[in-house]
Amino acid sequence: MARPLRHMRLTPSLLLAAACIAGAAPALAGYNIWTGEYSLTRQELQTELDKRFPATLRYAEVVSVQLSHPRLVLDEASNRITTHVDARLINALLPSPPVDGKLALNSGIRYDPARRAVLLDNPTVQQVEVAGMGPYREQLNAIGAVVAQQLLKDYPIYTFKPEELRVGGKEVEPGAITVGKDEVRVEVKQR
């Protein structure tokens, strides 16, 4: 005779079967039902950022700046993202060798509802490194500020698909954005 359900014990095999059934249900990629947040991994963000590089910017037909090899760092303490890039300055007027350096560009993050995208916000130059070329540091710093605005300002690091903004049959919208050690978490709330 079968026991009533209220007296059934949760055995390890029963728990495993329940987990398998729950795992078979479709889930939204990156959405955590328990916390109500989307998680954007460092690798997903790096892949999106890689699409923006290499890039070459020209200034007054005099200086050309080649930017390559972006490296993303998530700064949990300041809730910001830092992008390290290699930079090469080439002066078209002077017959001199290119000047190599590195830039660290620091950005906040915000959500743009019209684009359904998480964007880099207000990028600034955090650090400039030019090996053995002290006189070029100031120029690279000035150029870095322009690079930050032209290349990274309002750059979408993640764009939500329309179906990702529907959870449980209800419309949701992104809220608070938090930078973690290995991910960016985007809270979602009902409209």
Describe the structure.
This protein is α+β, with helices and mostly antiparallel strands and 191 residues long. It has a domain at 44-159: Uncharacterised protein PF07273 family, DUF1439 (Bactericidal permeability-increasing protein, domain 1), CATH 3.15.10. The protein is built from three helices and eleven strands. The protein is elongated, with a radius of gyration of 23 Å. The model is unreliable at 1-29 (pLDDT under 50).
Spell out the blueprint of helices and strands.
Layout: H1 12-24, E1 31-32, E2 37-41, H2 42-50, E3 55-59, E4 63-75, E5 80-91, E6 99-112, E7 117-130, H3 134-152, E8 156-159, E9 166-167, E10 170-179, E11 183-190
Antiparallel strand pairs: 1-2, 2-11, 3-4, 4-5, 5-6, 6-7, 7-8, 9-10, 10-11
Task: Offer a quick outline of the entry.
Keywords: Signal. By secondary structure, this protein is an alpha+beta fold.
Keywords:
21% helix; Bactericidal permeability-increasing protein, domain 1; 191 residues; DUF1439 domain-containing protein; disordered N terminus; 11 strands; signal; alpha+beta; elongated; DUF1439; 5-stranded antiparallel sheet; 6-stranded antiparallel sheet
